[in-house]
Every structure is written in C-alpha cells, then in structure tokens.
Protein 1
Amino acid sequence: HIDVNGSLDHRAPNNLHVSFQGLEASALMANIQDRVAVSSGSACSSASLKPSHVLTAMGIDAERARQSVRFGLGRSTTEAQVDAIVGIVKDAAASLRG
C-alpha cells in the first residue's frame, strides 16, 4: 500500500518520497511526529497545504499528493535507525488503517 514517487533509478540516495494509499499524510505525520522527522509534499512546498507543484508536474494527482510523505537521511543516519523508523511507520500506518 505504498508507492514510490519518482524514478527508482534516478534519485538522490538520501531521499525517499512515498505515498501511503488510503492515508492522509497529515494523519500519519501526526502519529509519528514525536519519533520521526518527516515532511509532506516536496522540499520546496513542505509548508504549503496545497498539493506540491513538483508532485503534480510529475503526474501525481492531488489525492496521492495528500498521501505523500518525504523522508530524508543524513550522514549520521544508521541502518539501525532506518530499521526503527520502518517499524514505527509500519505500525502507525496499520493503526490508522484500523
């Protein structure tokens, strides 16, 4: 129930932008905000409530854009931290889907 936004081959290695089918990004973000730093939309429009112009230019419709979350990794991010984040996000998505 997750779709990667953008090319799987041509992307920045420290950025993951995905859509969670059937979930509003804002609800997911509210559920994990005390444990994971994430953004919705694209980097250049993360503060806006409108669908990102970058996502719409990529052919992503408004509904899917509202379901989109962007994860960024830093130089000090460890594999163990990524594994923990995956677990947190997976549990939160399952909880929100009921």
Protein 2
Amino acid sequence: MGSVQESPLRHLGPQWFAVVMGWSGLGLAWVRAQAVFGLSARWVAVACACLAGASFVLVLVASLIRTLRFREALLEDLRHPVRHAFAAAFPVSVLLLVSLMAALGVPPAALKPIWLLAGALQLWVTLWVMARWLKGELKWAAITPVVFIPVVGNVVVPLGVPVFGHEGLGWFYLGVGAFCWPVVLALLFVRIAQLEMPARLAPTWFITIAPPAVVGLGCLNLAQSATMALAAFGIATFFFALCLSSARELRKLSFGMPFWAMSFPLAAFSSLAMGLADSGGVPTMLAAVLLALASVILVGLSLATIKGLRSGTLLIAEPVAPSIPVVPAAR
C-alpha cells in the first residue's frame, strides 16, 4: 500500500476553485442572455449554478480534508511565490456563486451575509498579497497573470450589487480593483521582458481578459453606463485577440489546471457582450457566438478534468519550470 504522503489529495490546491469561478461566471452570462434566448437561457443558467454549487461543495470538502491531513501542503501553497495568489480563488468563487444564486431567485437576504463576508475576505487577501510585496517578497519570476486574481479580483463584488444592494460598497471595490489592474498589468509586461514565462502557464494569459470584462460589467451595474462598458469591452476584445494569437501553442500543451484560467475570463467577456447587446452596443449575434464559445470551452474543460482525474494526471506534484532571464542580443 502507498503511504499517506502519496495521496493525490495532497496536491489539491486552492486553484481548484477556478472550476467554481468558471461555471458561476458562465451562469451569470446565461442570466443576462435571458433577454435574447428567453426562458431556455434561464434553465441553462440553473444548470450552470448546479454544476458550480456541486463543484464548490466537492472542492471545499476535499480542501478541508486536505488541510487536516496535509496542513504543511497548504502552508507551502501560501508561502509559494506563485501559488499563494490562488488563495483569492476561494472568496472570488463564493462571491460569484452567491451572486448567481440570488440572480436565479434564491432570497438575497439569506445570501447577503455570505456575500459581505466573502467580499471582506477578498479585500483581506488583497492586503495580504500586497503586504508581501512591500516586504520585498515580490520577485519577477513570481509575477504571472495569476496575480490578477487576488489584486484585481475585487471588481467581482459589484456583480452582486443588483441583487444585494450596497451600491456604495460596490463602487469601493470597483475602485480598488480598477486601480490595481493597470499596476499589475504593467508589472506583468515588464516581467515578460525580463524573464521567459513557463510554457505550461500559457493558458493563464486569458486572465488578462477578465479585469476589463468585469470592470465593464461593473459599469453596467453601478453607473448604467453603456458607453463606459463599451470602452471596457474594447479593451477586453483586444486581450481576447491577443490570447487567440497563442492558440496554436496551447494545442501543444498537455491538459492541466492552468487551462481553467480560460474559463471565467471568457464567461465574463460573453456576459459583458450580452449586457451590451441589450443597448445595441454589441451585435446580438456576436454576443451569442461569444457565449456559445465560452459554454463549449467550459464543457470541454470539465470533460478534460474528469478524464485527468480518472487517469491520475492532475492531482500530482507540479513540475518545476525555472524562469530563464532573457539575454540581450550582442550589438
């Protein structure tokens, strides 16, 4: 028999909450699609909510068991220069899930305390991450698109404002996330000018779509401004096209959890497109195509994940991929 230390559960990190983020984000997109597809869109949103809820329970229970059995593995994740950023995946997934549940008719009064607590936890994670930076723990090799999750993830809070209220709180979180977004983006571009990004992290570039997409949704929810949201959609479209330019390289990679970084950004992008389709800012056909693309990719990621769990290729130790400094060409 294998030892306890060989349990796959040891390698279940908080990045697995990305599954919940993806399905919750897609559910919110289908909620917005009701204006186009009617009641059928609502049923799809309910299916997404069921998958997101089931995924959340499974990952949460497994994470609690992992914490009890492999506490040192969790502490290692929190100390890791890259993986520590995934700590924000938990509060962000809760924010998205309760927002979706409320949008589908669950009494907001029952969910509001959870939403407020998750928002407070998300802000705390942001402060924790940036405090590490101030202590000199931020190294160029640790700057990846994953850093957007804890620092810019605050922009997710306004997604719940239409059902939970607290518009002022929504503006507060939107301001924090929108301010941190260009800062992290600048650091990211400087990083890739200095160090090569590990090939296995290539799918995480899709995370760059999420900040402008969710900021645009925040503009629709808080300011009812289609103009500001359309500008954000333009930025998200730019990063979407940039990510598509690396599609050929993505096909060469073996499936792993980094591919789930594609899920929520594409869902948020399609949700913004659907929101703008109502005002005529985006063609309805384009919004429908983006929603279909996000849905197909979510289904594909889920099937690949099930296959990976069955074959034992997912819950394993991550390979160490050193970042190599880019040597300037000799003049």
Protein 3
Amino acid sequence: MTNGQDGEPPAARVRCASASEARGDPLLATAAPAQRFLLVEQPGAWGRDAVRESRLDESVVATLTDKMRAAGSRLLLIRRIFRDPAAARRWAVADARAGQERVWWGEFTDERELAELDLTDPPGIPTEEPVFLVCTHGRRDPCCVRRGWPVALALGG
C-alpha cells in the first residue's frame, strides 16, 4: 500500500522521534547504552553513518572502533555550535558507569592522536560538570534537525 504520491508507504512518513512520541516512549536518556563514550569534535558534513562518512581518517576509525568494542564504549561525533574554526578540535571521554560519572576533555590537532587515547585512564583532569548532547544529525532522523537545532541553540547561546 502506498500513499499514491511518491510510492512511499504511509508508515515510512512517520519520523523516528514522532513515532516514539506517539508510542509514549520516555524521551529522557535515550542514548544507546555504553560504559564509556568517546566524543570527537568533527567539522563538516556527516553521512547517515556519521563516523564512517565523516572524513575521519579510515585507519583512525578502524583503530577507534576496535578500542570502543574492547572497552564497552561508543564513539560519537560532536560539533560545537559557535566553534571558532581556528580553535583546536576537542575530544572527551565520558564515563557513564553508575557512581563513576566523569568527563575528561582534551584537544587534538592530528586525528592520529585519538588512536592513542586510553579510554579507561584518560589524560587530563576529570570534571563532574554535566555535558548536554543534542542530536541535530538530520540524515539519520530529520526530526533531529527540526527539533534538535532549537534546543542546541538555546543551550549553546
């Protein structure tokens, strides 16, 4: 059955966030579960598979993917809304284990530096300050652009 206009089934037109809302899913803390997260600031456009289609060096992605899997971690790309293009790129290791919540921030100039990060004992001084991440990646879910950008702008402005 199609909607008669573009051959797309009617159910496919309901976007992820809207479908979740219609089901009554809880909207808080919906990130995929992991013990740790590596957040990497990556400028430019990302494809639907953000990490693999982001212009990150393929060998760095392969190394990080292996490290993430071994550490029960996830790699997420981030972008500061009002980032100075001349500023160094940043990374963060976020420990999400109950009672161990901490975030370590650092900077890098060469992506290969990321492959050397120890996710279980990151360099730097940990902070307990909250980090707010808002999805604005519209290639994966167009609702993220429509709903996420206003939230990200409000938090970052």
